[in-house]
Amino acid sequence: MYENLEQCVIDLERNGHLIRIREEVDPYLEMAAIHLKVYEAGGPALLFENVKGSKFRAVSNLFGTMERSRFIFRQTWDLATNVVALRNDPIKAMKQPFKHVDTALGAWKALPMKSQGGASAMQEIQISDLPLIHHWPMDGGAFVTLPQVYSEDPDKPGPMNSNLGMYRVQLSGNDYEMNKEIGLHYQIHRGIGVHQSKAVKRGEPLKVSCFVGGPPAHTLSAVMPLPEGLSEVAFAGLLGGRRFRYSYQDGFCVSNDADFVITGEIHPYDTKPEGPFGDHLGYYSLTHPFPVMKVHKVYARPNAIWPFTVVGRPPQEDTVFGALIHELTGDAIKHEIPGVKEVHAVDAAGVHPLLFAIGSERYTPYEKAKQPAEILTLANRILGTGQLSLAKFLFIAAEEDQPLDSHHEIDFLAYILERLDLHRDIHFYTNTTIDTLDYSGTGLNTGSKVVFAACGDKKRELCKEVPEQLKALRGFEAVSLIMPGVVAVQGPAFTDYGKAQQNIQQLAEAIASKGELHSCPLIVLCDDAAFMGDTLNNFLWAAFTRSNPSHDIHGVNSYYKDKHWACDNMILDARIKPHHAPPLVPDPAVEKSIERLFVKGASLGSIKL
Q1: pLDDT at 436
Q2: Terminal CA-to-CA distance of the chain, rounded, Å?
Q3: Which of 77, 211, 327, 575 could make an SS bond with 73 (beta carbons 3.0 to 4.6 A apart)?
Q4: Cβ proximity of 114 and 138 under 8 Å
C-alpha cells in the first residue's frame, strides 16, 4: 500500500520493475518516443531523472504490463474485486454475511477522509514549471495524459457526489495564455459534463481540480466504469488500501496525496481551440473548441514525480488499463444487462469502434432458435449503455450448444460469419452518436452504427484461401486473405463518395458476374491489401477505424425490402477518406536521436528492442 507515487517508484525499482534514465531527455518528442520503444519491448517502468526545462522528475510505463500492474496492487486487488462484485450482487453478502466481513470493513475504510495538509504542505508553482511533454509531431502542444480531473455536483457538493475522470488537459500551445489558461477536453457521456451542465444552469463557473500522480490507485480509479453509487474517490481508497485524503483550498478540492494539483474554473460557454493530439485510435484528433479552464493555482508536493503515458495505435499502455478494468469489474455487464454473457470492446480497433458480444436466446425455449430475437433486444441495450453507446460495429452471437469466447477474435468472428443471414441479420442505426475521437463519421460525435446478429445453424463454410471469383478483377487485382471468410481487395484511392459508388458498383458487378460466392461474406475494400491481410490487428484497426457503417457498407446484389437493407456479400469500404484524421507517424530524426540511450553503457542499454 503506497501513500504516494514515490513509494511506488522505490518499490518497483527494488523489485526490478523500473529503470532510471540519468541522461537529459527532451520532453519535446524524445520522452514519448523512448516510452513507446520500451513499452513495445515489454520493458520496465521508466523514471526520467533529468527532464530538459523542468526540475521535476517524470515516470512512465507504470502500468505497461499486467504483471507489473498486479504487483502494484498485490495487497488490495482481491478486496477491490470483491467489493465491486458485491455492488453488482449485494444478495451475496446477505446470504453469506460472515464470509464478506473483510469486504465490508474494506469498503468502510475506503470512505474519503478530510485531513490536514493539502496545499499548505505543497509548494506553489506555475504550469511552465511542469514537464511539458509533447508526444507526436503534429500535436498542438503539451498535455496531461494521466490526469485525475475532479469536479463536484453543484447541487450536491462533496467528494461522495464528485466525478474523477481522465480527460485530456492541454497545458500549452494554441491560444492558451501560458500559466493562466489550460484546455479541458472531455467527450460525450462523461460525468464532468453533467456537473458543467448544472453549473451553466446556475449561471456560475464550475470549480475543477486536476490531480496528477499520487498513489497509482488514484490514477486507475479515474478510468474505472464503476457501479452506480460507488464513487471514484471511494474506489481509489479501496484499491489503494488507504483512504482518499482531501482538503479544500480557496474553495477547491485538493488531493493531499497527489504529486501535482491544478485548480481553476470553467466558465459557461467559454471555449478555445484544443488539439490536435495523437489519440488511442492511432490517428490525430483534430482541433475543436473545448472548455478552457482559468488557472487559479498550481501546487507540487516535495519530491514530486510527473506520471505520463503515450497514446497511439493500440496496443499501448492504456490497453493494460482495459485488461485491469475487465478483471476488476468481472461480471458487471451481466448484472447491468440480464441476458448478456459478455461484451468485449476490441482494443486493436481502438476500443470504441468495435464490440463483440454474447447473449442468450430464450424467447422461445420450447423450440430451437431460428433467427435472432432476444439478442436484438440485448444489442439495443448494449448500444444504449454508457460508453458502449459510442460503438459503431456490434457483432453479437447467441450462445447455444457450444461455449463462446469473444476474446478469441478470429474464432468468434468466424462463428458469426458462418451463421449470419446477409438478407436478414444486418441492422443499421443512422445519424447517431459515435466517439468524439472517431473521424470516420459525418461530423464531430456524429455517425452511424450497425449490428450483426447471428444464431442457429451454420449457413456456409468460410473460404480459407482467396476464392477464384475475387482474383483478376480489373482495377482490383491485389487481394489478400485476412481470415476465413474475409478477403481484402485493393482498390483505387478514395476521392469522394460519388466516385466511390461507381468503384464499388463496378466491383460488385464484377463479383456477381462470376457466380455465387457463399464462402466469402465479407470483402474489405482497402488501400493496401497486403497490409490489411498481414496481421489480424492490422485488419481490426484499419477496417473499423476507417469506415462509417451507413456510408461504407455496400453489397453484391444489394437491395432494400420494407426499408431493410440486404445483400449476398458485404463490401466494407475501409479506404482512407479525405475527411479522416491523419495517422500517427513518428519523427525519424527523433527516433535516431534516442538511440543514444539504448547503446551499451547508457541507461537503457539492457533493453532488448
Answers
A1: 83
A2: 32
A3: 77
A4: no
CB 47 within 8 A of CB 307: no
CB-based contacts of 583: which residues, under 8 Å, 6+ apart?
A: 282, 283, 284, 313
Helical (H) or strand (E) element with 7 = helix 5-14
Task: Evaluate the CA torsion angle 23, 27, 33, 36 in order and state its sign.
Answer: positive
Spatial contact of 603 and 22, defined as CB atoms under 8 Å apart:
yes
- At 9, the amino acid letter reads V
Using a CB cutoff of 8 Å and minimum separation of 24, what contacts does 535-539 make? 536/348, 536/409, 536/410, 536/482, 536/483, 537/314, 537/348, 539/482, 539/483, 539/486, 539/488
Contact predicate 119/253, CB 8 Å: no
What separation in angstroms does the CA of 113 have from each of 216, 234, 323?
Answer: 18, 10, 29
Whole-number Å distance between alpha carbons of 136 and 138? 6
Within 8 A by CB and 6+ apart from 570, the residues are: 422, 426, 521, 522, 523, 553, 554, 555
Q: What is the pLDDT of residues 372-426, one digit of tens each?
A: 999 999 999 999 988 899 999 999 999 887 889 999 999 999 999 999 999 999 9
Q: What are phi and psi of 448, to 5 degrees?
A: -145, 175
Alpha helices in 330-365 (DSSP H): 332-336
CA distances (Å), 520 to each of 274, 492, 517, in order?
43, 21, 6
Which residues are within 8 A (CB) of 105 and not within 5 positions of it... i.e. 6 or more apart? none
Per the listing, cell 487481394 goes with: 479
Question: What's the whole-number average pLDDT of the chain?
Answer: 91
Assess contact for 289 and 266: CB atoms under 8 A.
no
